[in-house]
Amino acid sequence: MNSREQVLSAIYNAIDDANEWLPPDRRLTKSPDQLLFGQNAALDSMQLVQFVVSIEQYIADALGANVSLADERAVSQKNSPFRTIATLHAYASALVEEAGA
Asked: Over its length of 101 residues, how does the chain's per-residue pLDDT go in tens digits?
């Protein structure tokens, strides 16, 4: 499995975790278009933090890479990397590649 696939697997594992504590009507789907954060999205700001920390841990466990998804770079982007599964996957994969994992 390459690093992009492992990052997606980390995101999907975090989705499984999140769906255990999210109410049934706000559970996440494993779809690239799943809205995570923003207007009409599944997660509020505190839930997003919990979700991101979970992804970071899964990435560290799978790849040995310590990446910080919620850093200044992420919040300064015009389009949030936390908007959808697809944008988060692209952003996290880029960070993992930069980390050399």
From this structure: 799 999 999 999 999 999 999 999 999 999 999 999 888 888 998 999 999 999 999 999 999 989 999 877 776 677 889 999 999 999 999 999 998 86
On the 0-12 / 13-18 / 19+ scale of CB atoms within 10 A, 88 is buried
The CATH T-level fold of domain 3-98 is 1.10.1200
In the chain, what are the domain boundaries? Answer: 3-98
Identify the CA nearest to 64 among candidates 5, 8, 1, 3: 3
